[in-house]
Amino acid sequence: MVSAGISASPTAVVFDDPPIAIKNVLDLTEEGFLTDEVLTEVLPKRYTFISVENYGRSAWTHTAKVTTKRSDGSEKPFFLKISYGNHGGVMLQGEYESAREVVRLMPDLIPQPRAFGQFKVESPVTYYYLSDFIEMDTTTVPDPTELARQVAELHKTSRSPTGKFGFHVTTCDGRMPHTVDWEDSWPKFFCKLLLGVSKLDTEANGPWPEMERATKQVLDFVVPRLLGDLKQDGKPIKPSLLHGDLWEPNLGVDKKTGRLIMYDVGSYYAHNEMDLGHWRNEFCSHLRSKVYLEQYLRQYPAAEPREEFDDRNRLYCLKGNLNWSAGHPNSVLRRTAYNHMCYLCEKYAPLDGIDKYDPGKDPTVTGASIVVDVGPRRPGTV
């Protein structure tokens, strides 16, 4: 079920200003969780609704465990996520459509998506996303070999339905929208993606002339140089389906089966190495260890020229840096992104009027990290 109020076109998204925060809506409700008769309508017919209860914590969505009963009397739980306003609808539609793409290829990799749509309640305008519920251990360090195998399989087996880079609806990293209009050219697509998140960062943190010059230099010269002629096994790279927000809080282990589970997908078709850019950032902990990259590259070798893999990884991590900076104003990751840009400009397109690259501000060199308090997360929380 898809609401008619949310466009399927990535270019047509107009967000609320500002987005409606969950805490502001909960202040208006007496019970603490807003539910709706639509919920019973979208459940599979063989299940009878019993109850819904808060489950997990999130800044931009409200999450719950829905308990239902099968015809034989046994209980079946589902996971419910709701959000408010047009922004919330775009976020949840993006996750729903992403999840559908992933499970089509790898049915056991993420919780099965069940429904997306709009509640009937008129105020506040409320959207929902329903999926299977999986009881997970989210404290276990991801196994490098298993994570590499699963991610590489998703990347290798996926095929863009258009043969292009992009996605058919807007998807988000957290609450920040991706610019994912279809493009034949990977460098052109990446430039639009990076420019989009750069604008969000400027809106959140204000102008920074030196960074704006560095960003333009990266887009105009570094991107064509590093991404303009990539090959895989001698052929042009193909668009691969990404997770889109691949870091530790979006990984868990199914307590019943022991299988690796991913969630909170914000997918699009891109160069497979884009998913690895997140692992370079300060907000990652275990995934920053070289063993994860090493294991992945054994499953899916770096594109040619392989000797430029690390520079591409630095370029790709800018999206995660700036996305985090836009969502967390005054974060150190803005400075990190600028320093990465200075490195890339010095090496590939020198420019006056920006700073010199400083290894002392590079977490790849220093090992610096930030402490991320995501609270008691559950599958599907943001």
UniProtKB/TrEMBL annotation:
Reaction it catalyzes: N(6)-D-ribulosyl-L-lysyl-[protein] + ATP = N(6)-(3-O-phospho-D-ribulosyl)-L-lysyl-[protein] + ADP + H(+)
Pfam family, one: Fructosamin_kin
Catalytic activity, EC: 2.7.1.172
Alphabetized SUPFAM superfamilies for the sequence: Protein kinase-like (PK-like)
InterPro entries cross-referenced by the UniProt entry: Fructo-/Ketosamine-3-kinase, Kinase-like_dom_sf
Any one GO molecular-function label of the UniProt entry: protein-ribulosamine 3-kinase activity
Domain of life: Eukaryota
PANTHER family referenced in this protein's UniProt entry, alphabetically: FRUCTOSAMINE 3 KINASE-RELATED PROTEIN (PTHR12149), PROTEIN-RIBULOSAMINE 3-KINASE (PTHR12149:SF8)
Name this protein carries in UniProt: protein-ribulosamine 3-kinase
